[in-house]
Amino acid sequence: MPVSLNRRQTLLGLGAIGAASAFAAPALARAQRNLAVLHLGSHAPSFIAWERGYFKDAGIDLNLQFFEAAQPMAVAIASGDADFGVTAMTGGLISLAQKDAVKVIGGALIERPGSPGSVILASNKAYDDGLTDPSKLEGRSFGITTAGSSFHFMAHKIAQATGQDLAKIDLRPLQKLGSLVGALSTGQIDAWAIQPSIAAKLLADGTVKQIGTIAEMAPNYQVTTAFTSTKNASGEPELVKAFVAAYSRAISDYNAAFIDRTADQAEIDALAAIVHKYVETDSQADVAKANLIAGAQRINEGLAMAVDSIVEQLEWYKSEGMVDPSVTRDQLIDTSFVKTV
Fold first, then answer.
1. Phi and psi at residue 192, in whole multiples of 5°?
2. Nearest alpha carbon to residue 332 among 25, 71, 136, 94
3. Of 15, 49, 175, 240, which has the highest C-beta tally within 10 A?
4. Are residues 103 and 244 in the same domain?
5. Which one GO biological process term can you cite for this protein (predicted)?
6. pLDDT single digits (tens) 163-209
């Protein structure tokens, strides 16, 4: 049975495709819902679906709720403050899944060789000092938001792929993306891995150097997932199906414009303008659009889920002692709403 957690219990837990069918819309419209998002280009389908009314078409009265990092998004969904989120796997999310509070119901960003993906960067200072390749990270500092974050897992995959000891890489938890950007730009940390839209801006500013890609280190890594509360997944499956359908429409728009380049220029311009309302708002529109195009990363059509990658991440968190070793894949994921890949 799903467990209803209040905010305090949730915080304690952290410590240890086309439109929906028309007949479903009236039933889903009875309550306002929240979608947890970050001010990142990877969340472009969230902004596209909201601005183009895809959620309304699916019968969902939904607002965007902004966060600074992935783990608080899982807290919000478990406590009922938000209904859906699309972000990276974290130890906190897994712990909440074990408490029957959240479920991963889809996959979003994926690292695929040959497609744009996350970029490994070095500060100019570190690069000039010899950090010209990811295999030279031992003895260097690498930025992460928090222990157990996707950045932590990326550091593990880099170390694994290059035969380095992760324990010899100085992981620096700086909590917020803005702090990581600032620290890398000023040489306070030596390296970081980040999605290409942010990397493109840093590279254009001339404050960093690219030394590799995550796709080289971790092919088919499911970077972000879609998740909801266990209560929604088990008690309101039509709501979850409607969300997946609406979000999938936006993914198709995004991939056509920025990845597959099958959309016309007017459509590309229109979508870039939507995303610019939420991402790189301090940049000129043409600059933001160029960064969005240069930094676009493939998102799984229909929120298809790379199950093997998700399970690999689960097992890594368990092996590192960041989650209870007894947590199972069935507690974490529900594959009934999307295709698996």
1. -165, 160
2. 94
3. 49
4. yes
5. alkanesulfonate transmembrane transport
6. 999 999 999 999 888 999 999 999 999 999 988 878 888 998 999 99
